[in-house]
Amino acid sequence: MKHILIVDDDPHIGDMLEEALMREGYGVSRAFSGTEALLWLSSGRAPDLVLLDLMLPGLSGEEVLPRLLGLPVIVMSAKGGVEDKVGLLLGGAADYVTKPFDMKELLARITVQLRNAAPSGISAALEYGEIRLDTGSHTAYALDQPVKLTRTEYALLKLLMQNPSQVMTRSVLLDRLCEDTPDCVESSLKVHVSNLRRKLREVTGKDHIEAVWGIGFKMRET
Question: Total structural domains in the chain?
Answer without folding.
Answer: 2
